[in-house]
Structure formats: structure tokens, C-alpha cells
Write a structure and sequence with these properties.
- By secondary structure, the protein is mainly α.
- Helices cover about 55% and strands about 10% of the residues.
- Strands 1-2-3 form a 3-stranded parallel sheet.
- Strand 4, helix 10 (about 155-170) and strand 5 form a beta-alpha-beta unit.
């Protein structure tokens, strides 16, 4: 049997470049050799948009279109909406009963998001407890691997801690999945922070070529390079990090041009933007097809939910039996 992988992505707006090159890129690659269960985590999106979810249904369908356009093959991967598999919510409740509050309060992204997401009241149980829901999402499918970036390692470790605590209390049931780290480093947003739809600093992959170019041109660069004639420090510049992913063959030349001030930031960004547009061209072509196939997309996620629920029901029945429910 092929090893199992679980992955997920929130539908809080359209898929961005960090998702595309990170989690989704891993998913597309792993589906060739592994049994992949991938969810559109609409419950999770409510942790930040609970007060104004009017676009949630549109966002989650758009994300399904994005994922198919990115190369997710429904014949090789199980694609579904998290809310279509009720066992996610039920296991979340049961795991929350055994999770110490201190474990949640120490999750690094909890404090980070409180500090960085403005204009929203995140002091809710749902936001504090979302790592437990994430743990339920993972453990429900008993995976061998979870593809993540380094910033998500604390979340996966929490899932493993919850699995260990459950097994210690009730007997062995859950396996502890290993991390499958992203091939590419963390992509920074246009403001120099982690790229996140919640931060409003992302580069949407479904955008037009012109808008992509415009967003890249807004990116922050080396703060010490104030004038065009100032010599730069490529390692301090988020745009240079992009060249290391999208423009590897010219990266050394760009570094030298930056350090000698022969290459200005405007030209550097333009070259970066064009490479990104070139990389996204196949995705954007496929998306024009999938966005005109709403019935097919609906059938794909419905079938995915059926397949996912069969696995989820088995796990949850074992949990209830061992917990004497």
C-alpha cells in the first residue's frame, strides 16, 4: 500500500504564491507516489472571518478551481471540503477534552497572528483552539506524512503531542505523522512579512499578469539601499529570495549587480515579476478551463468527501470505542 499524506489549505481569499510554491506544489508532486487526502479547510477560515463570512462559499469554490488548475488530479488525490466530513468537527471536540490549555497558548503562530492581524477580534475560543482542529484534521486520516513549511512545525508537533497523550490515556490508536518539509523556503509577502492572505500582503496566483507585476513592484527591498547608487545587500532583500526560486539561472548575476549598484531595485523587480508571470502561465491557462466547469468541480469535491468520510468514519468509530462513548 502507498503511504498516506494529509494536506489542507484555508479558503480565506484566493490561493497565493506562497501556497502555490509550497503546500500545493508538494501536494501535486506527492500525488504521483502517495495516497493524498487534501482538504479545503473552510472551518479553519472561520477562526478569522467568523464575523463576516459572506464570501466564504465563493472563496472555497474558487480555491477548488485553483487547486485543480495547479495540477491536483482527482484521479490521484482526494479533494474535499472539510465541512462536508462532519467527523472533523466531532474528533475536534473529543481531542479538545484532553488538550492542556498551556499547549495552545505556547503555539508561536497564535501570538504572531494576534499581533499582525488588524481590525478583527481574535480573542475567541475558536482561534485559540484551532491547532486542535488542525490536529483532528491530520489524525483523522492516520497519515504517514504531512507536507508543511518550517513555520508550521509547531502545529504538527502539537498534533503528535495530542496523539501521544491520547494513546497514553486510552491505549495505542493514533500514529505520529512525520513532516514533509517544503522544497522552497518561506516566501515573504510584499511588505516583508510572511506571505498571508490574513495580512493582506500576498500575491494571488489567479490574478492578471499586469496585477502580478504591479504587486512585485510594490515589494520592499534592502532598507539600506535608499538611492539608486547605493550598493545593496541581496541577502537582506525579499525580492532576491524570489530570484532564488523563480530566476535561479540569473541569481548570481543579480547579486553582483545589486552589490555593485549596477542593477537598480526597479529593474530587479521587473525581472523577477516577468519570471513569476512565466511560471504562472500554465496555471492561468488551466484556470480558464476549470472556472467554466462548475458542475464537474462540484462532482469532484462531492466524490472526494465520500472517499474521505469512509476513512474518517472508521477512525472516529475506533476513537469512540476506546473512549467508551
Amino acid at each position: 500500500m502507498r503511504q498516506r499524506v494529509v494536506s489542507g489549505i484555508q479558503p480565506t481569499g484566493t490561493m497565493h504564491l506562497g501556497n502555490y510554491m509550497g503546500t500545493v506544489g508538494q501536494w501535486v508532486s506527492l500525488q504521483e507516489t502517495h495516497d493524498v487526502y487534501g482538504m479545503i479547510a473552510d472551518y479553519h477560515s472561520l477562526t478569522t472571518v467568523y464575523a463576516d463570512p459572506k464570501t466564504l462559499r465563493v472563496d472555497k469554490w474558487n480555491l477548488a478551481v485553483d487547486l485543480l488548475s495547479a495540477g491536483i488530479d482527482p484521479d490521484k488525490s482526494c479533494l474535499f471540503f472539510q465541512s462536508d466530513v462532519a467527523e472533523h468537527a466531532e474528533l475536534y471536540v473529543l481531542l479538545s477534552m484532553i488538550t492542556p490549555l498551556s499547549w495552545l497558548e505556547r503555539v508561536p503562530t497564535y501570538k504572531s497572528k494576534l499581533d499582525n492581524i488588524e481590525g478583527k477580534d481574535l480573542h475567541t475560543y475558536g482561534f485559540l483552539g484551532y491547532p486542535v482542529l488542525q490536529s483532528a484534521d491530520i489524525l483523522l486520516y492516520q497519515p504517514d506524512w504531512v507536507p508543511i513549511g518550517k513555520d508550521q512545525l509547531p502545529h504538527l508537533e502539537l498534533a503528535r503531542e495530542i496523539a501521544r497523550r491520547f494513546n497514553a490515556l486510552y491505549g495505542p490508536l493514533f500514529k505520529e505523522p512525520a513532516e514533509w518539509l517544503a522544497q522552497y523556503p518561506l516566501l515573504l509577502g510584499i511588505d516583508g512579512r510572511k506571505m498571508s492572505k490574513s495580512y493582506g500582503n500576498s500575491i494571488p496566483v489567479a490574478d492578471s499578469d499586469d496585477n502580478t507585476v504591479a504587486l512585485v513592484k510594490k515589494m520592499v527591498t534592502d532598507p539600506s539601499r535608499v538611492k539608486r547608487t547605493d550598493k545593496g545587500h541581496p541577502q537582506r532583500c525579499p525580492v532576491y529570495g524570489y530570484h532564488g526560486i523563480f530566476n535561479v539561472d540569473q541569481q548570481e548575476e543579480i547579486a553582483q549587480g545589486c552589490q555593485s549598484a549596477q542593477l537598480g531595485c526597479v529593474d530587479c523587480k521587473s525581472r523577477c515579476a516577468q519570471r513569476i508571470v512565466d511560471v504562472l502561465a500554465p496555471f492561468r491557462e488551466k484556470r480558464r478551463y476549470w472556472e467554466n466547469q462548475p458542475d464537474t468541480v462540484k462532482d469532484i469535491v462531492a466524490e472526494g468527501a465520500k472517499k474521505a468520510r469512509a476513512v474518517a468514519l472508521h477512525t472516529l468509530s475506533c476513537v469512540k470505542e476506546i473512549m467508551k462513548i
